[in-house]
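All the exercises in this workshop are built on plain-text protein records. An example says more than a description, so a record of this kind follows:
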Amino acid sequence: MKQLLLLITIFLFTLSSTIFASENALDKGAVRIGGSISFQRFTGDAYSDVTIFNFTPSASYAVNNGFFIGINTQIEKYRSNTNWSIGPIVEFYFPTQNSLDDLTKTVVPYMRFFATKGKSNSADFKYLGLNLGFLKMLNQHIGLDFGISYSYDKIEGKQYYSFYGSPLTERSGHRLMVGLGIESFLF
């Protein structure tokens, strides 16, 4: 917990010292704060083919033009379990040279890598995934994103009951997600 608090403190300090240092949403020094709602399909022995909805807030900082590093969180509630996880996210945006003048005139493809670790009422989780999508800026600071994600999930440690009640101890599964999000860029 102390390490998490230290990581968040360092991120906020970096954010406060560099905000307003860039000229557009994808320039070095920009900060992205956003979240997405996704429709998820779970398969594998850990999940027994389940479908849920999910909210995933995140924040990142542009260490270079179009290259962001940040924090990704995830909160899910289904049946009697509440899952939460937190971890790093690395993002790459691919604007065309013409779109850098006015990002509102184009759609910008992106790629995100994430790894999160979390807990639920009855298990420990690890997620590793890839998100591919498009960002459509509505104005200079607000954008909508549409993405498709895949993640490999591992449940370990405590005894976990699958969605159908069968006891499991260590299992893995796969997620395929389709999501829509809103992003705010500070620069």
